[in-house]
């Protein structure tokens, strides 16, 4: 396109164009319109002028259709290029997210394992608390019953765990007491043996 000429940008409705969109077709259209306008002025015959006008109008319709087609194709290429750029960006983002997910997978597995362990500990702790609470209640019931019935002989069964614990504590205490007495007796016997051996 020769930039020395001032070319008017032909812009149909619903089709945006700028001076950067000027093509050779715009130059041809402008030149033909200029030539036909000058030629029309030099002719006096109305029939010839009408023929020139018809030719100019038909030529303009064909050229403008071509210009519109070229412009639409150009706009479509721009949109496609922009869409391809966006697709590449999205694809790169997806690849990056996928890599991050793959990298975070071991950490996620570890967190899931730790979470499962915490849940298991919570469940065990809850069960232990419930068991201790039940034992305390049973123990208190047993103490209350013994206070109300001091002369009644207690018979322990599998359901009398708190009472059994108390009784076993008493028995263990007595056993330790007898062990202590036994040790003291053994020590006394050893002392007597030493004294006798010295006398002999």
Can you describe this structure?
Helix content is 80%, strand content 0%. The chain is mostly helical and 200 residues long. The protein has a domain at 162-200. Helix 1 packs antiparallel against helix 2 (46-148). The longest helix is centred in the middle third of the chain and has 103 residues, at 46-148. The mean pLDDT is 78.
Task: List descriptors.
single chain; mainly alpha; 200 residues
Task: Itemize the secondary structure elements and their pairings.
Layout: H1 24-41, H2 46-148, H3 161-199
Helix pairs in contact: 1-2
Structure in a nutshell:
The protein has 200 residues and is an all-alpha fold. The chain is built from three helices and no strands. It has helices at 24-41, 46-148, 161-199.
Mean pLDDT, nearest integer? 78
Q: Span between N and C termini? A: 142 Å
Structure classification? mainly alpha
Helices and strands, in order, run as HHH
Helix content: over 70%
**Sequence stretches where pLDDT stays below 50 over 5 or more residues:** none
Largest sheet, in brief, is: none
Provide a count of the helices.
3
Overall radius of gyration: 55 Å
Number of distinct beta strands: 0
Assembly form of the protein: single chain
Coarse shape = rod-shaped
Coiled coil: 73-148
Main location: nucleus
Pfam families: CENP-U (PF13097)
Protein name: Centromere protein U
């Amino acid at each position: 396109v020769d930039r020395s000429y001032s070319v008017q940008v032909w812009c149909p409705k619903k089709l945006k164009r700028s001076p950067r969109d000027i093509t050779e077709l715009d130059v041809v259209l402008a030149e033909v319109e200029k030539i036909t306008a000058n030629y029309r002025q030099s002719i006096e015959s109305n029939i010839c002028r009408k023929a020139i006008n018809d030719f100019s109008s038909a030529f303009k319709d064909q050229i403008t259709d071509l210009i519109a087609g070229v412009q639409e194709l150009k706009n479509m290429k721009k949109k496609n290029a922009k869409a391809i750029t966006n697709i590449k960006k999205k694809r790169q983002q997806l690849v990056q997210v996928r890599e991050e997910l793959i990298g975070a997978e071991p950490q996620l597995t570890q967190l899931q394992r730790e979470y499962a362990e915490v849940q298991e500990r919570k469940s065990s702790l809850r069960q232990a608390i419930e068991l201790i609470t039940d034992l305390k209640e049973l123990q208190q019931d047993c103490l209350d019953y013994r206070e109300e019935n001091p002369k009644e002989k207690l018979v322990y069964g599998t359901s009398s765990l708190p009472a059994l614990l108390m009784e076993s504590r008493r028995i263990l205490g007595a056993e330790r007491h007898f062990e202590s007495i036994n040790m003291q007796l053994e020590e006394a016997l050893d002392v007597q043996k030493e004294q006798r051996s010295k006398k002999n």
